[in-house]
Amino acid sequence: MTRLNVPQVSRRSLLQGASAVAAAPLITAMTRSALAQSGEAINFTAWSAAVDQAKSHITGFEKATGIKVNYENFPAAQFRATLVTKFTANEPLDVIWMNDAWTPEFAEAGWIVPIDDRPELLKYNAEIEKYCVNAMTYKGKQYGLVYYADHMAFMYNTEILQKAGITTPPASWDEVVQQSLKIKQAGGPQYPLLLALTADAWLVEMVGAIMNSYGGRFTDDKGNSALTDPNNGALPAAKWITDAINTHKIVSPGALTTGEIDALKAFGNGSAAFALLPRYRIRPLNDPSQSQVPGKIRIALMPQGTGAGAGHYTCGWVRYFGVTPHARANKEREAKALKLVEWFGGKANNEYVFQKMLMLDLGVPFCTTPLNKDKDIIAFYDKWVGGADVVNKQASLAVTKDVITPWFGEWNETNNQVWQSIFLGKVTAEVGLKTSSDKWNELKKQG
User: Fold this and answer.
1) Suppose 416 and one of 20, 141, 199, 349 were both cysteines; which one would form an S-S bond, judging by CB atoms 3.0 to 4.6 Å apart?
2) Is 0.90 topped by the overall pTM?
3) What residues contact residue 242 under an 8 Å CB cut-off, 6+ apart?
């Protein structure tokens, strides 16, 4: 079974080993020349996405401010583990890309610090979707500036469906099975549905999307695990995926070792009729310079499950720029780091440059509401997605993860392995979900 290379340490030990550096007194402003002359570069650490865009925007920042930036990026699947290692080794990180799922854990460990005492950054909240602000907030403190928000999308290849005589994409998971079998009978792909089910950071969002469409939740209103609730959608979702692999054979067994980027490449070469992928992947999939199926990929609403509470729901998330205690322990370094955060997460030269760049270049969505009326953004949707109606409706049905806690990372290591064991048939869905449920409740009890 595929396993993440994540240090096996408890959250308590992480907290005990966390830096206790307190933020230095804040400064009101520093001039461009003073910041540049101080000479120290800012360390910006990210995962390996939008690398060209990040480098381009850093170059613009350095030219505009005279501040140097040391930029590093690491594979997304191992990024949390990389950060854990770097923080526990007290490496000098200043600005990091943050997954909203890690906020409580990193905040409790003292690896990120609030920015809600910085009005020059908080002013952007007035033009950011409220749920995005909430996703960066923990115990009443805001920990960064968002650069994108997205959700898992159900995509389909119009040409493959047409060849099988299918005119409308599936509206339910039962229809996904029916259409997939019809596509196979018509000589289409052997495995019509592409899922990326390797045990990495994407798995909770991949299974979460299907679970949400069944009306499922990870936790109940009191924060206890809901995975063993017979009325919860987690069980039918787990059984549906397992059957799709082992009974209907519409999902390849290789899905369990397939990462999100590998699924993207396979879907882009026409290997499947359907795929669950982050919505922003629609841009490269329809780009003739990056895809073998340009113009053929469209987005449908997430297929609906069965049972109470089922609907076209999906899993949504937010990614943002976080600031470390190291950045705020020195007033000059702090000023530089916060300028970098604003340049990326706010405005650069009075415009939302980075957010717009990500959308137009990569299809990466944003939380910044003024861009919804931007003529270039509207033209983007028309060209690459076939209009904004479906994606906007799906965005309104996105459900943020209800497991965002200080112990999320530790629990999710177990949770990922559980879901893989279920798919492999090593344990029943009932037994597997109980294991994940017990782990969650154990960690919650520890606090």
Assistant:
1) 199
2) no
3) 422, 423, 425, 429
